[in-house]
Amino acid sequence: MGDGASSVESCEFDDYEESCEFDESADEPSQAPKDPMLQLVSLQRASGSWLLESPLATALGKTLQEVESSKPESVSPEVWATVLAVTWLHGFKMDAQVEWEFLAMKAVSWLHGEKVPCLTECLRAGNLLLGCQVQESSMGM
Fold first, then answer.
1. Of 43, 45, 23, which Cα lies nearest the Cα of 33?
2. pLDDT tens string 49-85
3. Which segments show compositional bias classed as Acidic residues (predicted)?
4. Domains of the chain, residue spans
5. Within the chain, how many helices (H) and strands (E) appear?
6. How many CA within 13 A on the CB side of residue 103?
7. H/E element holding 47?
8. pLDDT recorded at residue 17
């Protein structure tokens, strides 16, 4: 009877394996979205902010060095990255605003919570770097 039980367990396990389909691509690391807006959106942190790092610079169409060297001295890298992300969305993706407006609101709320004294200066520098003309009023800042 021990052999019978063993073969039943084996059959059940074999049946299970045959009925399950395994997607081998799930083991491969996922690639960042190719669409710059999707890439940018995927980089937003739960707090509403963005980090100043290479994937963000790439999504903005800049190098990390360009982004870092344009940062106003009196602002943190996280504030600068967040201002740039929101500026880019307003400057280049207004046609898709319905897709990102709540993310931008969360980011602006985070910026207000940081009590950044130089948001106007940051927006000017961001506009200059990105080639935009986004106004503070349109961003809710």
1. 43
2. 999 999 999 999 999 999 999 999 989 999 999 999 9
3. 11-27
4. 33-139
5. 8, 0
6. 25
7. none
8. 47
Distances (CA, A) of 95 to 16, 48, 89: 48, 21, 10
Residue 52 one-letter amino acid: L
Integer Cα distance of 117 and 107 in angstroms: 16
* pLDDT given at position 1: 52
Q: Within 10 A of 13 (CB to CB), how many other CB atoms are there?
A: 10
Distance between start and end Cα atoms, the chain = 76
* Alpha carbons 29 and 25: distance in angstroms, whole number: 8
Q: Please identify every stretch of the chain with a pLDDT value under 70, giving residue numbers as ranges.
A: 1-33
Q: CA 87, 92, 98 angle in degrees (round to 5)?
A: 90
Q: Encoding tokens for residue 130?
A: 């990105």
Burial tier of 44 (Cβ tally within 10 Å: 0-12, 13-18, 19+): buried
pLDDT of residue 64: 97
The torsion region of residue 92 among left (phi > 0), alpha (psi -120 to 50) and beta comes to alpha
Q: Which two tokens stand for residue 112?
A: 């207000």
DSSP one-letter code for 29: P
Contact 113, 105 (CB under 8 A): no
